[in-house]
Model the fold of this input.
Amino acid sequence: MKKTMLSSSMLAILLASASSNAAFVDASGGSFDGNINFGGTIVDVSPIWSFQIPSPTVEAIKGWHSIAQIQGLRNGDNTEFHFTDKPVMTMIQGFMKTSAASGGPGLTPEIKVGQGENELTLDGTKQPFSVTATGQSGAGSTEGKLSFDVQGYIGGAYIDDSTPKYFGSKMAQNVLTSNRQDIATAYQGIVAAETDFAAANAIFANVDSKTLSGAYTVDMRNYKLAFPTNNMPETWTAAVPVTVILK
Done:
């Protein structure tokens, strides 16, 4: 039976080859030119991450008011303003809208703040960050510096050897559970747990981490603004680029 099937298969291949090569073209002058055109589709089955800069943060970082003669502190050639009345704010947060069958490449967010020489890759610790602030006044424009601390938190839920567990930061876990209503049913009897940033990243990358759902949140605090004392602007702005890639 196997021999008969093999013979039939070979016959089908020979017939198909004869059919596909039916349109021969004469090689004029002994030469021939043609093209073989490959094509296909690529399907991305990675779970979808969804990110946002929360609207309360967008509103809270507008219209910061300072009085130079009262709140400004001289430091060398600059006057500094420490915004101690401003709270800890969420810079960016995100979560996986669906669970991954397992951990592995292409799931773990890597967040970068700033660009060029000021670019900072978040590593789970409290990291100082600064960006150029542009000031405007009747005398023209001037440059200063806006500084603050930034810290990333990553975590989520997964099944570890048939046991549902939380992992990573509690702050990230809260982002996940507040945006995914199916977590309680997808991870019934889930075990409370926390791990550090590096361990959470390892769980994301591990193919043995099953039914993995993740979240990420970044906070910022301790804001400071500095401008040259002899060129103090009337208004100022500072733009902070935030980039997310999956590794």
The chain is about 20% helix and 40% strand.
